[in-house]
Amino acid sequence: MEDDAPVIYGLEFQARALTAQAAETDAVRFLVGTQSLKFDNQIHIIDFDDENNIINKNVLLHQAGEIWHIGASPADKAVLTTCYNKTSDSRVVSCAAVWRMPSDWETGNHESPDESAHNPQTLELLCHLDDSTHGNAACVLWEPMGDGKRVISLADNHALLWDLQESSTQAAVSSTATLEGKGQLKFTSGKWSPHHNCSQLATANDTAIRGWDLRTMRVWSVRYNHSHDQLVLTASSDSRLILSNMVSISSEPFGHLVDDEELSEGEELHQEDKGKEPLKDSVVSTYEEHEDSVYAAEWSSADPWLFASLSYDGRLVINRVPRALKYRILL
Amino acid sequence: MDGEGSVPVAEDPARRRRVHGMLKLYYGLNEEGKAPEQPESLDPCDINGPHFDPELYLNKLRRECSLTELMDQETCMVRQIRSLDSDMQTLVYENYNKFISATDTIRKMKNDFKKMEDEMDCLSANMAAITEFSARISGTLQDQHAQITKLSGVHTLLRKLQFLFELPARLNKCLELQAYAQAVNTHRRARCVLQQYSHLPSFKGIQDDCHAIMDKLAQELRQKFRDGGSSAKDLSECVELLLQLDEPAEELCDKFLSHARSRLESDLQGLEAEIKPYPSTATKDASAHGSSSATAPGSPSDGSPKSSSLPSPASNTDILEFIDRGCNEFVSSLCLVITSYQELFINHAQKGELASKNIPQMANGKLHAFVDDLAARYFMLVERRIQEEKGVGDNSLLVRALDRFHRRLQAVAKLLPGSAVPNKGTEIVIRAATERVKQYLSALQSFYMDSLTDVRQALATPRLSVAGTSVAGPASGRDAPTSLPELLSSLSASILNQIKSVLASVHLFTAKDITFSNKPYFKGEFCSQGVRESLVVSFIKFVCQSSRQFCETAGDKGGSTPPALLLLLSRLCLDYETSTISYILTLTDEQFLVQHHSPVTPVTTLCAEAREAAQKLLNHYVKVQGLIISQMLRKSVETRDWVNTIEPRNVRAVMKRVVEDTTSIDVQVGLLYEEGVRKAHSSDSSKRTFSVYSSSRQQARYAASYTPSAPMDTNLLSNIHKLFSERIDIFSSVEFNKVSVMTGIIKISLKTFLECVRLRTFGRYGLQQIQVDCHYLQMYLWRFVSDENLVHFLLDEIVGSAAHRCLDPAPMEQSVIEVICERG
């Protein structure tokens, strides 16, 4: 019952953007966006073969600029959004766009993997999510479980809700919200709440979610496990990834009032959990495979016990929840 | 025998030996008896020894001695033989004489016995004659004796009858004279006779008369008893008589006790009146306090001392007076009641025939219930009064009051063995003592919090001046050095003094002249659990706890705790760990002679806790200071357009500010913590190491990373570099020394700088500005840290990252950088 060793994958470029391919529920697949000012940036599609512990990669070119954030459509596997920096006339502009992957990236790859690495295919631009009045886009968030028609982009201190029309080739702002406060507040990260029919959005600005993990200097990424929301993944600048078991914020708490609606996923687990000692809030494990700041961590959309983390030096590590804990939560 | 005859004269030594042996036989000196005494005389030549061999002896003599000596020997021997012979003859003669005189004595005795036998015969004949006479006389007197006996019997009977007939009259007379005792006595004597002969009409009449009279008498007695005004002696007589009149004892007891109760209750009411005024004020005060604490829950430490000090001036009698009054009035009357009651119902009844009716047991039970009931009320009052005693100023008054209270209860205990009253009293004392300990704990705690507030204020004032002078430069350090260590020592000394004074106050409870101090509770549990655990240990724990809270709350409020206070508290906790805790506990153990029956918190646990608190505080200090500097750096990076910036001419002001602040932090930490160890090679030359850092290594890196054809090299190089350098743990625990603290703060600051740089995009001059800034930092920061390579590495990373994020990476010449930095 030894826990499997983590799987490490190295990219040539520095990278900050990582997401799981949300529409893909069979394979463990992550998308990584690179950051390079001098070369064409790439999107790496990384498949993880759970049984053989092997990684397969595919590379797509993203020529628009260095990628700061990446998001995958929950409805269409091939559709994704990126936030990227564009430099023109010695000015740096942050933009956001919706892209479609070339339809044959998968098949082409299987036939000649070497060739695809050398001659990566290019993404097809669907539309820009641009609104110059609202500043630089920090990230784009797809409505989870939706039909891939609605996204929210966070730009400086604004949150914009976009409606994508005509197979995502046109985008229109349907509503905006502004974060008010002292100083220059900026949204840095955010996440739709999967509960309450996706009507809520959680955002993080700078240190506002530091409370999750007091030890780290700046938490760059917080991810709930989507089916067992007591597992929280935090990635931080001290090259560490921390998996915490936060029973207190779980939607399957012991002795709390819980809406049945909320439990749509975890209901049967809840029934079984009842007679058990509640697990305490604690750090489950700390992963130290990274050598540089970890800016992104993401749960796999296919396997709820699997997660990937990406550090600045381009190292992607795929890890699993320790088995002992997994069985304690499940049984 | 035949040998003797044939022994020649010449062989006289052998003959003499034989004679000698016979003499020895006569005196019981056989050879066995002599042998153990003279074991040395085995020599065959010893003429007196048992193993004497004449042959050997003779030969020896002949060999060794000359003729004259032999001759002398011979004459000497002959002389000795003669004297022995004469001795023998004397002895034989003396024995013979003794034998003759013994024979004479025996003959004389024989004659004397014969005469005595004759006289005995004569005596026995006389005795027989006397017996005969005596028998004859008693026979003749028999008849007269019987008659006399009969007459005397009749006489007594007549006397008794007369007594009976006179009885009613006599009783009446007694009644008139109020000689109740006599009446009862008389009646008692006649009672059973009358009872026995009551079937005879005449006796019946008498009996009825008597009954009537006695009823009247009993009535009068009861009346007298009820009035209760009579003296104790009268009362007791009264009760005794009533008891003899078969009055139900239970009723009497009840009556007696109810009398006593009314008197005692008036005492109790008097006592209650003493505390009556308080409940109203106390409740008012409590409600006021409650409302105030409800409105301001954040400051309970401020509210409690005020409210506790309020009732003390309002009380017009202090607790000692109160207890005194209780003892003198209530307890002493209770004792009196107990004594007289016991005298009446228990001791008396035990003597008389009434004991059989189980009266003592019954009476005893009633008495116990009575005493318990009243004592419970008394205790309630006392406890109420004690609870009002909240001011912790003077403990001796309370202890003396409790002592008196306890001492007086011992009297009750003596009078009424087996009563629960003294135990309850002791319980009250114990409760009061534990309550006191609690009050002292909270007083200590509020004292501690108050002193912290003082320290805070003291820190705030010089800080202003420091802030004012810090612009001027080195003067900033001058105000702080006088204050910080002094504040620490005065804080720690005042806490220690307070603890000592509290210990002294609490120690009064166990003073030798206090009666309850020898109770097992005060000897054992009070010392170990009460004083040591819930006072001293709890206080130390409180100190650690509150220190830890500074770490937790400060994070939310954004540094409401001044960093200097964190530093000071950390040092305080560390001092506690190294010496103060063990000192305090030793002091406590010595003063209270704590015998650890129950498990107590060991010193090591407390020390570990204090150390943990110190560590936490110091870590927090590092974090807070680090974040303050980080914030400056961050703002400076985030608010600038790095792409379109001009060529660097100066070090940015922020960097100077960072160095200044770091210096002043260094001074501050240096006041309380030792220097610590740094890696040896860093001490002398900042120039040399820096030039290594900037020229050779850095140039090499730039060369590699900015050739566009080899993008992999950058990663490879930095990865290889990282592989060989130790991983930097930004938030690792710091050690208790200055260098470690400074290292922690600088690590945090530089790491923030790095992260901020990575979020930006730089133009050519942006990168160069970063180079200049980093060089400047390098020039000044290396001296603060334990391992300057750490600073090198982080600054390297910053410049490297900036280069990565640079659109037009053209690094500045090293010499130009140096010139700019030296210009300041």
Describe the protein in words.
The complex is a heterodimer of chains A (331) and B (824). Chain A is mainly beta and 331 residues long. Chain A has four helices and 23 strands. Mean pLDDT of chain A is 65; it is low at 107-117, 194-222, 224-229 and 249-279. Chain B is mainly α and 824 residues long. Among the domains of chain B are: 419-459 and 483-619, no CATH class; 640-675 and 714-823, no CATH class. In chain B, helix 14 (359-388) runs parallel beside helix 16 (421-470) and helix 18 (520-557) runs antiparallel to helix 19 (563-592). Chain B starts with a helix and ends with a helix. Mean pLDDT of chain B is 74; it is low at 1-11, 31-38, 278-315, 463-481, 554-559 and 681-715. Chain A binds chain B through residues 12-14, 36-39, 85, 87, 90-92, 214-218, 237-239, 288, 291-293, 312-314, and chain B through 555, 643-644, 708, 711-712, 715, 718-719, 722-723, 727, 729-731, 748, 751-752, 755, 758, 761, 763, 804-807.
Helix content of chain A: under 10%
Strand order of the largest sheet of chain A: 2-3-4-5-9
Sum up the overall morphology of chain A in one term. globular
Oligomerization category of the chains in this entry: heterodimer
DSSP, total strands of chain A: 23
* Helix coverage percent of chain B: over 70%
User: How much beta of chain A, percentage-wise?
Assistant: over 45%
Question: Largest interface, and how many residues on either side?
Answer: A-B, 27 and 26 residues
- Mean pLDDT over the full residue set of chain B: 74
Number of helices of chain B: 27
Terminus-to-terminus distance of chain B: 147 Å
**How many distinct beta strands of chain B?**
0
Radius of gyration of chain A: 20 Å
Family (chain B): Belongs to the VPS51 family.
Keywords (chain B): Coiled coil, Endosome, Golgi apparatus, Lipid transport, Protein transport, Transport
Pfam family, one (chain B): Sec5
Subcellular location (chain B): Golgi apparatus, trans-Golgi network; Recycling endosome
